[in-house]
Amino acid sequence: MNKNKHLLLWSSLGTLALLAGAAVQENIFREWRQTQKALATESGPLDVHLRQVVAPKMQAADRCVSCHVGMAAGEQGISGGPLAAPHKPVGHDPAEFGCTVCHAGQGRATDKADAHGDVPFWPDPMIPARYAYAGCGTCHAYVGIPTESQLTGGQAIFERYDCLACHRLDGRGGTLRPGGAGGMEGPDLSAAGLAGYDRRWYEKHLKKREESSDGPWRISFGKIEEPDRTALETFLATRTGAAKLVEAKALFHTLGCQGCHKISGVGGDEGPDMSRVGLKDPGQLNFAHVPGKPTLANWLSAHTREPGKIVPDSKMPVFGLNDAEIDLLTYYMLSLRRGDVSESLWPKDRLRVERFKEREFAADGATLYATLCSGCHGPNGEGRRFPETYPFPAIANPDFLAAATDQFIQDTIKMGRPGRRMPAWGENEGGLRDEEIARIVGHLRRIGGVPEPKRPIAERRWVKADAAAGGKLYAAYCAGCHGAKGEGLEAPALNNKSLLAAADDAYLVETIGRGRRGTTMQSFGEASTVHPALSPAEIESLVAYLRSWEEKKP
Amino acid sequence: MSNETPPKSALREFLGNLVSAPGRIYRAAFRTGTPTTDRTRSNFIFQNVFLHLHAVRTHRWSLRWSTTMGLGIAALAAFLITLVTGILLMCYYKPSPEDAYNSIKDIHFIVPTGRFIRNIHRWAANIMVITVILHMARVFFTAAYRKPREFNWLIGMGLLVTTLGLSFTGYLLPWDQLAYWAITIGANIAQSPREVTDALNITASFDPGGMQRQLLLGSDVVGEEALIRFNLLHVMVLPLLLSALLAVHFWRIRKDGGLTRPEDADKLLGPPPADTYPVFTEAPQKTYHLAAIVRGRTPAVNQAPENTIPSMPHLFYAELGVFMLTVLVCVGLAMFLNAPLKELANPSVPENPAKAPWYFLGLQELVSFSAFMGGTGIPAIVLIGLGLIPFLDREQRGTGEWFGGPGGWPLVKQAIAVGSAATLLVETIAIRFGWLREWFPHIPQLVITFVNPGTIIASIYAVYSIWLVKRYNSARAGALGLFTCFLCGFLILTAIGTYFRGPNWDFYWSPAQWPKH
User: Fold this and answer.
1) Which of A3, A26, A111 sits opposite B112 (nearest CB)?
2) Are A459 and A438 within one domain?
3) A252 with A233, same domain?
4) B324 CB within 8 Å of a chain A CB
5) Do B116 and A12 touch (CB under 8 A)?
6) Is A54 helix (H, G, I), strand (E, B) or coil?
7) pLDDT tens for residues A45-54?
8) Are residue A436 and residue A491 in the same domain, yes or no?
9) Domain annotation covers residue A31
10) Contacts of A61 in chain B (CB under 8 A)
11) Domain presence at residue A331
12) Which residues of A touch B112 (CB under 8 A)?
């Protein structure tokens, strides 16, 4: 009996001790209680209680302010360290929007590691502070972002016309004049793209200049030429208060990543869809070969640097980008979030993209080309080759442009090359509309400097020659690069159904005759060290032979 | 007139009553007075609805730790802990797919000591499952299921099933990935009869598996309906059922003459130690006259001189001691080990591997070979076999002794070796070389249903047990062997399912080797 008595006594005492311990833990040693104890207000120690931002429309109950007390609504004059600091002024009031909708992390948590999301099983940890504006991607799409060259060009024009004399932009300019007189005459334009601005600004500026006799209106402001004004307006449309993110997006659209990756239905399908890559769960990623902490940002940048090292069997080539570029790309990828925010709360830019079918980027030919084509065909259409791939054709090559009609190029873009790496870009596949494809062709003509050729013969199919003779010629001169059955080795596949359907005879004859200077495709109309000049009849017989691969129409 | 008593002052009487009300309330509740003597203690037990589940005197054999190891009380204690903590959790838990996960997060992060309470709830639930299984093993190995306790053994099986049901239904409520996919697996196990109906091509007209799954989930997938009915089962239906079964279980212990003890228990125990306190301080006022109206054997009739001591305080110290020890273990575990909570349930991102709750992982291991056998066939055989034990073993030898009966402990040791070896061997073959489907890709599924590691292991157990029956000429010997084998099989398969199965249910020595995608 005594043993049982002791069992009862000691287990009761042990239980009591543990319960007391739990009570102490709960009421004294919770992290946020300790944090709040260390802070003070102007009128004495801070009242210690759980603080939270409840944002019903965002379905958020964010307890971040239990530690970041300075950012809680209505808390003022708190001192005692970095956690006492108020939120810096931003477009969205944290008291209305909560914290996690922009910064991610676990708002309901009250322990640091849990709240910041640095724990297993929290798929959306905080976005690192240096990529803070990536959080905008939860709701915003930021339409009309052009390529990097247009962006930097616009900025250069902005600076060259001395706009910074009166306007502030991204924290620069609008400095006070000596003696404290004037300065900041114009409004801050850092968010002009969001807030909008007077469309007749130029006329108004001119008028002011005429009215005033001295001061910055006469010294700094002068006439601005029409193309420069357009560039300025393109540039100003991108000023959304998130300059770094815009820069990152512009770089992304310059490198042609969307040639392989789809975003919101636009892009190739060689690589994974990236529409929500910023929401990837780090818990599901393999960090075996990723240096640094196992964060999504580190994974993305390591993967961009050397895809095959991080994901075995990755088809993505190594682009040889520098650290700054990789960092910017990481920035943009982190912003690809598209959170499940109620549609009634969508900002205008996202509505314009998802409901009014606007593009998330400038839809001019240059931007479209850079965004979708330059990854494979090169920034200037010079063609490109990555290790372990066949070469991608030089599509701004003057010889090509001189032989190809616009219709041919448009059909090619629209249908792609089935079975090859060129995807179809029609609206249902790659997401491009006909007028956009036409703009891309226009851009090719512009950078190639060659207008559309006039066909002397109206008929598309006029070659009537001996295919058998062509076959012999093909085996002798073409098969080495294009493959014995035209399947394409070093050079493009010629037995491709979609190529043979889109190309007219003139294109094929011209291409064989001219060759493509600057590529390995030589002119077969002229003799070289390895082949004699082919006569027009011979070239036509080659074309007839190529046609023999075409699908017979029933 | 002069005889007339002076009229009482009603007001004075009222005040007097008011003053003595507290004492009277106390005496109305505790009519037997302070339990200071053996007699009043006996009365105290007798008059108390809760305490009178106990006999007023307890046999000294029942109080030996080795008799029960306190497992039944520990299971009850765990149930009571889950009951209390469960009610506390219900104050904050919101049973809807939109709110469930967030309400658990709130319990974890801001409800005062909510995390602690939830941890206790979880640990008590696990301890309840473990102690219920161990309690059953104890009753089996001490042959305590024998006449007249056959029915209580069946009630006990009902309690086992209800306990597993309680734990399983509770698993879904947090609505995280762990819960979602474990219940998906569980529901697929319920659908397992389809393997046979599919093979016979009659699923379209006769689909008990699909019906079971529908009944469980209320829908084709784990969703809102499933959550609501799991919640209903978890917080109301099953606890009520369990309480009712418990009442019957305890009442039967009393009716069946307390705990089992060997025929020669008194001889084994010897005389009570001299310092046993308290001894009789008065002659008993009452005899067991209640026994006169009770049919059949009663504890006191035709028995040798009683070797009993008063239940109060001896039995109560033991019971409370075990109770508090269970509380201590639960609270201690809860203090340092958090109940798991993964990401919010996401039907489009399957967990790989998706695992059922641990006590079903042995079954899941068998399901991986044949859904029907693992999910329906073998569990049914086990349950029917367990239920039949007391009716097939009508022997007397060894009642109340650990591993009692022909063969005894050496037989159990041998059965442990045979059972473990058979399970490990068949599992090794299946893991190392695959099974029929890998060897003969076009083999009919029905063949695999009946020839798979699960059925082969079960057959080995059966053959071994029949051999034991013949060798010892005793059904008890066969039962000892079979039960031991199944216990070993359960442990090994559960361990394999828990620790050595990774993505796609492939075998891995440790989770560190799991491939990451």
Assistant:
1) A26
2) no
3) no
4) yes
5) no
6) strand
7) 889 999 999 9
8) no
9) no
10) 102, 106
11) yes
12) 26-27
Q: What tens digit of pLDDT does each residue of B227-240 get?
A: 999 999 999 999 99
Which residue stretches of B173-306 are H helix? Answer: 177-190, 194-199, 208-217, 224-232, 238-255, 265-269
The answer on pLDDT for B248 being more than 90 is yes
A121 in contact with chain B, both atoms CB, cutoff 8 A? yes
Q: Is A4 on the interface with B (CB under 8 A)?
A: yes
By C-alpha distance, the chain B residue nearest A62 is B106
| Final residue of a structural domain among A93, A126, A159 | A126
DSSP string, A429-450: TT---HHHHHHHHHHHHHHHT-
Q: Do A110 and B110 touch (CB under 8 A)?
A: yes
- pTM of the entire structure? 0.85
pLDDT at B40: 81
pLDDT value of position B302: 44
Instruction: Write out the residue range of the structural domain in which residue A88 sits.
Output: 37-126
- Residue A498 included in any domain: yes
Residues A295 and A333 in one domain: yes
Distance (Å, rounded) from C-alpha B267 to C-alpha B282?
Answer: 27
Q: Residues A394, A447: contact at Cβ < 8 Å?
A: no
Same domain, yes or no: A464 and A528? yes
Answer whether A32 touches B (CB < 8 Å): no
Q: Do A286 and B342 touch (CB under 8 A)?
A: no
User: Nearest CA of chain B to the CA of A36: how many Å?
Assistant: 15
Peptide bond into B313 cis (omega under 30): yes
Based on the fold, state whether residues A287 and A200 are members of the same structural domain: no
From residue A430, give the alpha-carbon distance in Å to each of A414, A416, A445, B461. Answer: 8, 10, 22, 62
Is B433 in CB contact (< 8 Å) with chain A?
no
A192 interfacial to chain B (CB closer than 8 Å): no
Check which CATH number belongs to the domain holding A342 and give it. 1.10.760.10
Please name the residue of chain A whose CA is at the shortest distance from the CA of residue B112. Answer: A26
Last residue in a domain, options A337, A354, A371: A354
Which residue do the tokens 């829908």 mark? B219
CB atoms < 10 A from the CB of B203, how many? Answer: 17
Same domain, A440 and A484: no
For A127, the token pair is: 């976005």
Decide: A30 and A114 in contact? Cβ < 8 Å: no
User: Which listed CATH number (1.20.810.10, 1.25.40.280, 2.30.110.10, 3.60.150.10) goes with B68-272+306-351?
Assistant: 1.20.810.10
Please give the structure tokens belonging to residue A82: 């970095």
Mean pLDDT, each 10-residue run in order, chain A (554 residues): 87 96 92 91 89 88 92 84 86 88 93 92 92 91 86 91 86 72 76 83 88 78 87 89 91 91 89 92 88 92 92 87 95 91 86 86 90 92 84 90 92 90 90 93 92 82 87 90 88 89 89 88 86 89 90 61
**Which B residues in the span 98-127 are in contact with A, Cβ-Cβ below 8 Å?**
102, 105-106, 109-110, 112-113, 116
Which chain A residues are within 8 Å of B341, Cβ to Cβ?
121
**Which residue in the set B65, B331, B516 is minimally distant from A286, CB to CB?**
B516
ipTM: 0.86
Per-residue pLDDT band for B304 (boundaries 50, 70, 90) equals very low
Q: Which amino acid is at A113?
A: A
Q: Are residues A462 and A538 in the same domain?
A: yes
Query: What is the pLDDT, as a whole number, of residue B428?
Result: 93
The CA distance from B325 to the nearest CA of chain A, in Å, is 5
Instruction: Please indicate if any CB of chain B lies within 8 Å of the CB of A49.
Output: no
Beta strands, E only, B30-121 = 57-59
Position A506 in a domain: yes
- Is A15 within 8 Å of B342 when comparing Cβ atoms? no
Out of B113, B321, B341, whose CB is closest to A8? B321
Which of residues 55 through 74 in chain A touch B, CB cutoff 8 A? 61, 63
**B314 reaches A (C-beta below 8 A):** yes
Q: What is the pLDDT of residue B201?
A: 87
Spatial separation of the C-alpha atoms in residues A240 and A64, rounded to whole Å? 26
Helix axis angle, B114-141 to B71-90, nearest 10°: 150
Confidence grade of residue B277 (pLDDT, cut at 50, 70, 90): low
